[in-house]
């Protein structure tokens, strides 16, 4: 199967998701004001995509879910480390908004995550026997979990210190 065929046969929702993710990644290059709940948008999108993959792409559902959860935990640790040297969230004075500093890490990880998930899913459609391979299913779901977890770890690394500082200032 050629690369052209793979790209042509990819569902339109995947390309719409890719465009949406790239847009998010580009906006992440610049400081931006947002409500705190928007901080969780990207991790939730990747988590939903990962759960979709476990439900619809994996054969060994129970083991696949365990592999995804294990990967999620590994990814959270990795994401926490990656974001530990990044600029912190700031309060926007006189509002309930935060200022999230612009960084290139988010766009880089979005592109890497999309490519890895795309390649693994394409491998499943090209080599149907992989669908019934326990090892491939575990790899597929573990890697999905790691990639999702990286975004959760980064988000939590930003959110938890912000929340603690906010709570301290409320009780002063």
UniProtKB/TrEMBL annotation:
A Pfam family it matches: DUF6622
Q: Which UniProt keywords apply?
A: Membrane, Transmembrane, Transmembrane helix
Statement: the UniProt record of this protein carries the keyword Iron-sulfur: no
Q: Which InterPro entries match?
A: DUF6622 (IPR046730)
- So where does this one cross the membrane? 12-30, 39-56, 62-83, 104-130, 136-163
**Name of the protein:** DUF1453 domain-containing protein
Q: What is the scientific name of the source organism?
A: Photorhabdus asymbiotica
């Amino acid at each position: 199967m050629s690369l052209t065929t793979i790209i042509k046969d990819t569902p339109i929702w995947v390309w719409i998701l890719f465009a949406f993710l790239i847009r998010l990644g580009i906006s992440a290059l610049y400081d931006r004001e947002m409500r705190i709940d928007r901080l969780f948008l990207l991790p939730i999108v990747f988590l939903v995509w990962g759960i979709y993959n476990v439900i619809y792409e994996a054969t060994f559902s129970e083991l696949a879910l365990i592999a995804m959860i294990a990967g999620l935990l590994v990814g959270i640790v990795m994401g926490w480390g990656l974001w530990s040297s990044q600029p912190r969230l700031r309060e926007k004075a006189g509002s309930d908004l935060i200022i999230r500093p612009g960084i290139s890490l988010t766009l880089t990880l979005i592109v890497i995550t999309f490519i890895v998930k795309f390649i693994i899913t394409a491998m499943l459609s090209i080599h149907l026997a992989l669908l019934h391979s326990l090892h491939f299913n575990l790899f597929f779901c573990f890697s999905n979990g790691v990639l999702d977890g990286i975004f959760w770890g980064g988000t939590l690394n930003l959110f938890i210190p912000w929340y603690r500082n906010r709570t301290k200032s409320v009780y002063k």
